[in-house]
Amino acid sequence: MKAYVFPGQGAQFSGMGKELYDSSSIAKELFEQANSILGFEITKIMFEGSIEDLKQTKVTQPAVFLHSVILAKCLPSFNPSMVAGHSLGEISALVASEALDFESGLKLVYKRALAMQAACEANPSTMAAILGLEDGVVEKICSEVEGIVVAANYNCPGQLVISGEISAVEQACEKLKEAGAKRALMLPVGGAFHSPLMKPAEEELAKAIEETEFKTPICPVYQNVTTTAITDPSEIKKNLIAQLTAPVKWTQSIQQMIADGATEFIEVGPGNTLQGLVKKVSREVATSAATIDA
To answer: Where are the domains of the chain?
Structure first.
């Protein structure tokens, strides 16, 4: 069974999507539509912008979404048995599986990006990658630190990202190193994504999600919050709202997809990060990148 997975923030690169735009009339039309919906030329930033330009949350999120969704729409044989997306990639997965239409998905992503950026600016915060410790150890140490610091991204066994107030994350990193972490690396991000500090963004996005029409997807969607196969539109909405302050349970989602029959994972979008994470969860499954000439 084929599982299609969609990357999140961090997969962006200068020139992303240009090949698609140049080689496919469908892609070109969708990219132009995106420029019109957003009210600025995101294609110019994606194709010619610097890494710094692309790093801004309000650009990164729609850029990664567009690359993923437009690639999925151009695939000659897109027939998923199941889909999942990492953080922002969940919205890409929902559009690709037809739970959301292209315009609604892009508007939600842009609103999500602006709301998250505003939350970051209102409350300076950060994230750190912890390598080489069991999840339970990381969770326990975070719970003992003064201030807000929580497990945010369960990426693969032995790799967990924590998120919270700068001083609390720094303190947690020191304690985690003492506990035997191979690395505790502060990440160059704008704020504490997937933590309680994103509550203002969650509240803002909730209104937009409630007002958006969601349909039953063409296949089950494994959402970050529950890690299980979801097809009910009202449940999809609820989980998508909760996602901003809840952890991304990627390890658990991949494990569940494999338990439910996934034998091949195809990454749709920029980069190859998710293929690497899937392989760290299980060496038994095949991984590849989606290409329009496949």
So the answer is: 2-121+196-289, 124-186
- The fold of 124-186 is Alpha-Beta Plaits (3.30.70)
Tokens encoding 7? 């990357």
- Would the pLDDT of 294 be above 70? no
Mean pLDDT of 49-66: 90
Listed residue (103, 69, 41) closest to 290, CA to CA: 69
Active-site residue identified among 68, 87, 92, 253: 87
CATH topology of domain 2-121+196-289: Malonyl-Coenzyme A Acyl Carrier Protein; domain 2 (3.40.366)
> Is 194 an active-site residue?
yes
Give the span between the Cα atoms of 47 and 111, in whole angstroms: 22
Token pair in block for residue 229: 């196969």
Pick the catalytic residue from 125, 194, 195, 253.
194
